[in-house]
């Protein structure tokens, strides 16, 4: 199992698909799987049940995963100690995007419940999570100014897959 971690907008879902095609593993996008299992969108889960419930759903999903798969995690999956333990049982690749890159990519995105108009709050959340991503990572890959195929190729090469 290979877990892709990183802040929202770092390209985890896109790179997971590309990596899956490159090495022949299946892939799962955690947010999409949670939406499928719950029958509602992530923003709806946040609105109706709150972030705490969403984090519990992430943990439950992580506990159920096994096999040769690429897992595109949600940006906040690293906030739970239980999730950190579950992630580090396998290879963890941190897709490291600068805040400027994230801000540019998410400027018009209205589907992310924790990304808002307050740039300072967004930056604070990013800076709080950054050391956790780095600590958990088996491999750190800078993604600024790189396309998904290049990023996937770098992961394959550096992990010797």
TrEMBL record:
Origin superkingdom: Bacteria
Which Gene Ontology molecular-function terms are recorded? kinase activity
What EC designation does it have? 2.7.1.71
Q: Which InterPro entries match?
A: P-loop_NTPase, Shikimate/glucono_kinase, Shikimate_kinase/TSH1
Q: Which Gene3D superfamilies match?
A: P-loop containing nucleotide triphosphate hydrolases (3.40.50.300)
Cofactor: record remark:
Binds 1 Mg(2+) ion per subunit.
Catalytic reaction(s) noted: shikimate + ATP = 3-phosphoshikimate + ADP + H(+)
Q: Which cofactor does it need?
A: Mg(2+)
| Pathway assignment | Metabolic intermediate biosynthesis; chorismate biosynthesis; chorismate from D-erythrose 4-phosphate and phosphoenolpyruvate: step 5/7
Ordered alphabetically, the record's keywords are: Amino-acid biosynthesis, Aromatic amino acid biosynthesis, ATP-binding, Cytoplasm, Kinase, Magnesium, Metal-binding, Nucleotide-binding, Transferase
Q: Where in the cell does this protein reside? A: Cytoplasm
Pfam families noted in UniProt:
SKI
Which residues bind ATP per the record? 9-14, 112
Q: Does the keyword Nucleotide-binding apply?
A: yes
Q: By its UniProt entry, which PANTHER family does this protein fall under?
A: SHIKIMATE KINASE, SHIKIMATE KINASE 1, CHLOROPLASTIC
The entry's function note states: Catalyzes the specific phosphorylation of the 3-hydroxyl group of shikimic acid using ATP as a cosubstrate.
Quaternary structure note:
Monomer.
Put simply, this protein is called Shikimate kinase
Give the gene that encodes this protein: aroK
